[in-house]
Amino acid sequence: MFPGPRMEDKRDYVMRARAAAVEETRRRILRAVRDLGLETESMEIVLADVADRTGVTVRTVLRHFGSRDGVFAAALDFVVGEVERERGTPGDVAGAVAALVEEYEGIGDWMITMLGREGADPNVRRMTDRGRAMHREWVRDVFAPVLPAARPADEAVDLLVVATDLYTWKLLRRDRGLGRPEVEQRMRALVDAVLGRA
Predict the structure, then answer these.
(1) What is the pLDDT of residue 158?
(2) How far is residue 77 CA from its own chain's centroid?
(3) Which pLDDT band, with edges at 50, 70 and 90, does 14 fall under?
(4) pLDDT higher for 182 or 2?
(5) Which residues form the HTH tetR-type domain (predicted)?
(6) Which of 1, 128, 140, 157 has the fewest beta carbons under 10 Å from its own?
(7) Which domains does the chain have, with CATH numbers?
(8) Is the CB of residue 146 less than 8 Å from the CB of residue 91?
(9) Residue 187 in contact with residue 168, Cβ under 8 Å?
């Protein structure tokens, strides 16, 4: 006869299940904040709306994150993590530019709106400052294996930041009215020129 599960094993299983449920609730809350921000083109999000969308109470939202500011700080970390995972791998120039254009196609207009509000809203300013820093770090990491030796690294990174910037996408896609393939081709041409690959 086989012995039954030990009490410690059951307790361990229950604790792991609870921790997984807590983590899933946190992710649902963070996704709700992200989605509401995109839909409303604003950071003026009401916690009751987050709670409704997530299927929890406002008290539960606050229990997870401590305060409204805590919710937004965690949501910013969550979104930055998503963006970093989707942006491509070091040395893959074509993949990096394609992933970046894909991102801009999805949330570029929202990002432009947020940049227009950063002077009036400290939460938005924290987000846009973080976004700028993340973009520069991404450029440095992704293009490091292919930076030209003839150009100082800081100069090359500055030029690559401009070539891959949101406003570069906006100028080509929204102001010029080019299609997505043309925008990707032109951004890639700018990157290749900086890298000496034209």
Answers:
(1) 96
(2) 8
(3) low
(4) 182
(5) 23-83
(6) 1
(7) 1-73 (1.10.10), 87-198 (no CATH)
(8) yes
(9) yes
Q: What is the pLDDT of residues 131-167, one digit of tens each?
A: 899 999 999 999 999 988 878 889 999 999 999 999 9
By CB atoms closer than 10 A (0-12, 13-18, 19+), residue 118 is middle
For residue range 94-125, what is the model confidence (pLDDT) as tens digits? 999 999 999 999 889 988 988 998 898 887 88
Three-class DSSP category at 152? coil
**Cα–Cα distance measured from residue 147 to residue 157, given in angstroms and rounded to the nearest whole number:** 8
Do 172 and 186 touch, CB atoms closer than 8 A? yes
Contact 148, 193 (CB under 8 A): no
**Residue 124: Cβ-neighbour burial (10 angstroms; 0-12, 13-18, 19+):** buried
167 to 101, 132, 137, 140, 172: CA distances (angstroms): 12, 12, 17, 19, 9
For 114, phi then psi, to 5°, come to: -65, -40
Residue with tokens 């979104």: 79
**Token output for 117:** 């509000």
Handedness of CA 10, 13, 15, 17 (dihedral sign): negative
Residue 35: left (phi > 0), alpha (psi -120 to 50), or beta?
Answer: alpha
Query: Does 82 have pLDDT greater than 70?
Result: yes
Task: Name the more confident of 198 and 185.
Answer: 185
Query: Tokens 């040395």, residue?
Result: 91
